[in-house]
Each structure stands twice: as structure tokens, then as C-alpha cells.
């Protein structure tokens, strides 16, 4: 009896591991909700050829879109337009910066988010003044600024 339970437990563990390791199953277009189909219609012809993980990300994005306010949707559209205007090199640089950000500890990510919000809360004239100041810095001045800023982040982490 004990041996059967042990064997059953082992089989269940292996099944769980295999299920976790295997890719998600592709979702057929007809299985999407009518709302998701409407939002994802531009992808209908190539839907079946998309990897299952991409299908899932797109489906979740469509669901998330439904929860946005009109103002939030407008901001998303504007950001998408800006993204489309970027060169492939600029897009890649942004992706790499985002990956570096994701690798930071959560408390450092939070501190960076707070700093970003603080910057965004400044009056437009002040933000532009700071941007111009950054543009006018030499590469060496920028490197020193980043080093000082990194020191502040590290000090913040130690104080927590």
C-alpha cells in the first residue's frame, strides 16, 4: 500500500513537472471571445502561425485593453505611435534597458519608479530645463552623474 502511494506521488510529481515545462497549447481563432477577436482582427490571418506564448500575450493584452479608460487608451495609442516612429536600433536599446531594469532588485526598481514620478510631477518647463541640461553634458559628465546617482540608490538600499 505504501509503495503504491509512493509510486502515485512520483507519477503526479513527474506529470506536474512535464506540464510546467511544456509550452502552452495554441489557441484557435474561433476559441477567442468576440471582443478579443474584434480587437485582434488585424492578426486573424496569421493567428494560427503565431507561437502559443505570443498568442497568450496578445489575448491578455486584449483583455487588459477592455479595462482601460478612454484616457488610458488614448495614452496607449500615443505611445504606440511613438514606438512605431523609432528606428530598430532605438527599439532594441529600449528593450535592453528594460531588461537591465527588470534584473534590478525590487527595492531599486521601486526607487527608480519614484524618481520617475517625481520628475513627471515637475512643471513642463522644469522638465525641459533638466532635459536640456542633460543634453549639454559631456559623456564624462553623464558618467559621473550616473555614478553619483548609483551611489544614492545604494545608500537608499542600505538604509532600508
CA-atom Rg in angstroms: 24 Å
Residues in helices, as a percent range: over 70%
SS element count, helices: 8
Spans of at least 5 consecutive residues with low confidence: 15-23
How many beta-strand runs?
A: 0
Q: How does the helix and strand content classify structurally?
A: mainly alpha
| Average of pLDDT | 83
Major beta sheet summary: none
User: Topology as H/E string?
Assistant: HHHHHHHH
Overall geometry comes to elongated
- Work out the strand percent: under 5%
Distance between the termini: 53 Å
What does this structure look like?
The protein is mainly α and 160 residues long. Helix content is 78%, strand content 0%. It is built from eight helices and no strands. The chain has helices spanning 2-21, 34-40, 52-67, 70-85, 88-103, 106-120, 124-136, 139-159. The radius of gyration is 24 Å and the shape is elongated. Mean pLDDT is 83; it is low at 15-23.
Could you name the key traits of this structure?
single chain; 160 residues; mainly alpha; 8 helices; 78% helix
Outline of the structure:
78% of the residues lie in helices and 0% in strands. The protein is an all-alpha fold and 160 residues long. The protein is elongated, with a radius of gyration of 24 Å.
Outline the fold blueprint.
Elements: H1 2-21, H2 34-40, H3 52-67, H4 70-85, H5 88-103, H6 106-120, H7 124-136, H8 139-159
Amino acid at each position: 500500500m505504501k509503495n503504491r502511494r509512493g509510486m502515485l506521488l512520483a507519477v503526479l510529481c513527474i506529470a506536474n513537472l512535464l506540464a510546467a515545462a511544456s509550452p502552452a497549447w495554441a489557441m484557435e481563432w474561433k476559441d477567442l471571445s468576440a471582443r478579443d477577436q474584434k480587437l485582434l482582427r488585424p492578426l486573424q490571418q496569421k493567428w494560427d502561425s503565431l507561437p502559443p506564448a505570443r498568442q497568450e500575450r496578445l489575448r491578455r493584452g486584449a483583455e487588459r485593453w477592455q479595462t482601460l479608460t478612454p484616457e488610458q487608451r488614448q495614452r496607449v495609442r500615443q505611445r504606440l505611435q511613438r514606438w512605431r516612429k523609432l528606428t530598430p536600433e532605438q527599439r532594441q536599446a529600449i528593450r535592453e534597458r528594460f531588461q537591465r531594469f527588470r534584473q534590478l532588485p525590487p527595492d531599486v526598481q521601486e526607487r527608480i519608479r519614484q524618481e520617475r514620478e517625481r520628475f513627471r510631477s515637475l512643471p513642463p518647463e522644469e522638465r525641459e530645463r533638466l532635459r536640456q541640461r542633460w543634453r549639454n553634458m559631456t559623456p564624462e559628465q553623464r558618467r559621473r552623474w550616473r555614478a553619483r546617482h548609483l551611489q544614492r540608490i545604494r545608500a537608499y538600499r542600505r538604509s532600508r
